[in-house]
Amino acid sequence: MAESFGTDPERYDRARPRYPDALVARVAAAGREVLDVGCGTGIAARQFQAAGCTVLGIDPDPRMTEFADRTGVPVEVATFESWEPAGRTFDVVVAGTAWHWVDPVAGPAKAAQVLRPGGRLAAFWHAVDPPPDVTDAFTAVYRQVLPDLPFPIGPRSHGADAYQPLFTRAADGMRGTGAFGEPEQWRFDSARTYTRDEWLDQLPTSGALTRLAPDRLAELLNGIGSAIDALGGRFTTAQATVAVTAVRA
Predict the structure, then answer these.
(1) What is the end-to-end Cα distance of the chain in Å, rounded?
(2) How far apart are CA 19 and CA 154, in angstroms?
(3) Helix (H) or strand (E) holding 246
(4) Alpha carbon distance 100, 117 (integer Å)
């Protein structure tokens, strides 16, 4: 699944949410030479470039890296675990909605290897938390169309609390290297209003749906679209962007 997002890189880059400027600035305070792990189409990389950083991306999917390269992000095609740094070191290693695809032991150890002393490792994710009526409506559609979906869908599958096991795993991996200071968790809260078309545009970029058969995806999108129509054609959702981060000792 980790290499399925390149099916439609244009849609992925267009529809996926950006990261808070406050997060980018806080991470970039550690230095201006950034390694972006799992950079995808370069969403986070371009934000760090705009903040004055020099960024090198790494991603295993050549379809994603070709898009990133066209937008001005230099990328090397590899998994982080197999990537060869060739003696290069960095001030910052980041992973935007990608660190869960990296080995929880080898990944932090590799980051420690390429970070300069005082450098920062920061992995961050978006946690979307729609209102209860929206969650209930979407859950009903998922259960009807995809009853065998291997991911929890429902009131407890949204928001930062639902992601906490992932955040804890990331922090434990950093801690386990013995090369970092105590990990911290930073949270940036926001809200976003989605139209029907905007929500349906980003939905196929979800890891749960990238490999779905076209007919089942169409059925799901039709059902979700009808649910949004019944809710007035748009909805506003809370969003928490959470970073798990530690400084190289």
Answers:
(1) 34
(2) 25
(3) strand 234-247
(4) 24
Integer Cα distance of 124 and 145 in angstroms: 31
> Which segments of 29-96 does DSSP mark as H helices, in order?
43-50, 62-70
Tell me how crowded residue 16 is: count the other CB atoms within 10 A of its CB: 20
The kind and range of the H/E element at 174 are helix 159-177
- Kindly list the strands in the beta sheet with 184-195, ordered across the sheet, starting from the edge strand earlier in the chain: 75-77, 54-59, 33-37, 90-96, 115-129, 234-247, 184-195
Q: Give the whole-angstrom CA distance, residue 2 versus residue 38.
A: 9
The closest alpha carbon to 64, from 96, 112, 106, belongs to: 96
Question: How big is the CA angle at 201 (ends 200 and 202), to the nearest 5 degrees?
Answer: 95
Retrieve residue 137's tokens.
């409506």
Residue 187 phi, psi (nearest 5): -130, 135
Reduced to 3 states (helix: H, G, I; strand: E, B; else coil), residue 109 is: helix
How would you write the pLDDT of the chain (249 residues) with one tens digit per residue? 545 555 789 999 999 999 999 999 999 999 999 999 999 999 999 999 999 999 999 999 999 999 999 999 999 999 999 999 999 999 999 999 999 999 999 999 999 999 999 999 999 999 999 999 999 999 999 899 988 765 555 444 557 788 999 999 999 999 999 999 999 999 999 999 999 999 999 988 876 676 778 888 899 999 999 999 999 999 999 999 999 999 999
Tell me whether strands 33-37 and 90-96 are parallel, antiparallel or unpaired. parallel
Residue whose tokens read 């804890």: 168
